[in-house]
Design goal:
The structure is a homotrimer of 204-residue chains. Chain A is mostly helical and 204 residues long. Chain A has one domain (2-190). Chain A contains nine helices and no strands. Chain A has helices at 2-20, 28-50, 55-58, 61-75, 77-80, 85-109, 114-135, 149-162, 168-186. Chain A is globular. Chains in contact: A-B, A-C, B-C. The B-C interface holds B 16, 18-20, 22-31, 33-34, 44, 48, 53-54, 57, 60, 63-64, 74, 77-78, 81, 85, 88-89, 134-137 and C 48-51, 112-113, 115-116, 119, 130, 134, 139-140, 142-143, 145, 149-150, 153, 189-190, 194-198, 200, 202-204.
Amino acid sequence: MEYFLAQVGIAVFAVSGVLSAVRQRLDIFSIVVVGLLTAIGGGTLRDLILNVPVFWIEDLTGFWVAVGASFMTFVGIRFILKLPLRLLAYLDAVGIALFSVQAIDKTLALGHPAAVAIVMGLITSIAGGIARDVVTHRPTMLLSRELYATPILLGAMLYVLLSPYPGSRPVAMAAIFTIRAAAIRWQLFLPLRLTLQVDIDDTP
Amino acid sequence: MEYFLAQVGIAVFAVSGVLSAVRQRLDIFSIVVVGLLTAIGGGTLRDLILNVPVFWIEDLTGFWVAVGASFMTFVGIRFILKLPLRLLAYLDAVGIALFSVQAIDKTLALGHPAAVAIVMGLITSIAGGIARDVVTHRPTMLLSRELYATPILLGAMLYVLLSPYPGSRPVAMAAIFTIRAAAIRWQLFLPLRLTLQVDIDDTP
Amino acid sequence: MEYFLAQVGIAVFAVSGVLSAVRQRLDIFSIVVVGLLTAIGGGTLRDLILNVPVFWIEDLTGFWVAVGASFMTFVGIRFILKLPLRLLAYLDAVGIALFSVQAIDKTLALGHPAAVAIVMGLITSIAGGIARDVVTHRPTMLLSRELYATPILLGAMLYVLLSPYPGSRPVAMAAIFTIRAAAIRWQLFLPLRLTLQVDIDDTP
């Protein structure tokens, strides 16, 4: 079940990766690269930093799912663009909930402390999207006010806090999904006082 | 012979890396960094993902060849810019043919499946150029319609298919070079129907 | 003492990372990511290439120092922006002097040759800042004429040359700091003849 959900997460990430670059008039090769980067880039960086074998080298399923989902997005782009965009955003929210919790489990199982696990949850969920934006020459999500990483951070901290108790896993995943879905539904941002707004003439 | 050809490939990649950033008015230090990134960046990422020692740490020859070629490009820039640009593009095509096949051999020798080997062939040949464009703040080749990765992909698949037969290596290298050279000579692109062109008002 | 200085270097790098992105109106999460990337990104890439455990996974002190320094920069931004900018630039110069020499020591201790050690000194000091500029969509220091990497390169070569003699460490650190401080104080650039300036109509 969880293995299946992980593949769904990878497919959704690939689709949302391709869609986010849809204005860039990419050819089919670039589309598959962009889909792959979004879907497996974060987990690749996590595994490199953790010094464990990169997950898609060990088991190519995720790789093929990402290639297939990118290709099908290309083929069915006119159909997909007719879907409500929010549907895809909600599916993406399922993906980050799953990816974060899985990355935390993997990191804790290697004996690393909770802080490292939370960082790995974040890296797995957001590094792929950042790499995609960098190679397609677009502003990354770090420059956006969209509430994307904060739900992951809150849910990851909750997961680590609750980990001695049974049921911590679904609770953490539900927390990430719910906060992110609320951000999508009501277009939530971090309050302005948590944003650096300084009018300056000269910076180093 | 092949070791020598590999060094030629690294040198050509360094030269083409420096030339592609020639409008950016870089100083000599940045030029060497850009040449190095282009020439050894792809192989570095391949080795990190394969979890083997990075090739230029093991044997510094490639590193020095890239530094030397970058430096000589700086010194002889006026002479090099008088050469026909296509000559350099053809040399670069020799480089990608060689790099791809070597990366596939290295990956297969580690016991990985053919799909991983093909991906490593692509990463070795294109990741360095993408990193160069990212750090020099230029659009990457993923945004270009130039037929660059497709010849590598076709040649790599051919190499894997033919691998049980003798002579597969020179055939695959010739295929990559020929398709790429044809793309340079007749300015080939992927057909428009393989390009994502959607007129949209709002994307996620 | 040195361990303490290393933490000061990380804190200063985080502060200067946040300040360099101060115009971008980042929220608190992005600010901490940017501070972290600047402060520990270079050392992370060094450790990945050297194939040793990433330093902040082994000992989280540096990670927390970077998070704390980024957070305090956010909280105290109005106070920090009243400080003379040169003060921060000089502190940053202390950081690069220390980081470079430590990276060289670490690399030589692993049995690598001097050239690899010098490259690792450079990577540790500049890769974090380059990554920060890439994810915040700004031109990287490779495009700037600022004399930043050259002091590190000269000091690193001096350190390797002097390494058989006692006192080589403080001498090399002083050299890096002094050349960089002179570049800040008198706004030194590499001479124009060491910059690639070609007027061209078409590049590959």
